[in-house]
Amino acid sequence: MKVPENFFVFKLDRIVFEGVDGQIGPLSFEVARRDDWAVYLDDSRDGEMLARIIKGIAAPLEGRVIKSSGDATGWVVPDGIIALMGEDFFSKTVRDEIAFSVRVGEAKGTLEMGPFVSEVLRRSEFASRLKENILSLSKFERHLLVLASALCMLPECLILVDPFQGVGKDEAPRYLNLLRYGRKMVGFATLQIVSVGGTPVPFEMLREVRMRSKEGEQP
Question: Spelled out in words, what is the top-level CATH class assigned to the domain 8-210?
Fold first, then answer.
């Protein structure tokens, strides 16, 4: 059954949480399929906390996160939401990392994985480097591998915390090329959480929310 384009992935219902410099919120909005949102916060640590709250790893002081449903895998990403917050890997090689994510994506049965994975590997330039140890990759290459791995899980929503952190000016086009390809093929929503001085991915219909700690208010 085709999922309606306006089918929501999750909703934030008056979320308040403890930030680095005080309480932040209330924050309320709904993320539907193919939506692109950017939330601006004072500190990247606040962004990571918000991502954990959305994933259910941490609890807010007030409010709730409402999710549409679980996805077909029911284990690694049970809510279809993948948060890119760091470069922690459980795998030793690029091949192992991608293979694990492909198994998650295959369980959903929503996309022909072979051609999609091949193109992800081509655009990320990992196709000929599958045997390499992840520890041998540069910081940007690990950042790119996190994205490639997430795309192969066929998410319903990607949460990107400071997406360009650790990405050089000359490296950004390669990162954007991969992200936009995944977005086109999978149709996931994006929520970018951007701290002061950061830059969001410039999606065409980007919706923006600016939040500050206790003394500020949501526009």
Answer: alpha beta
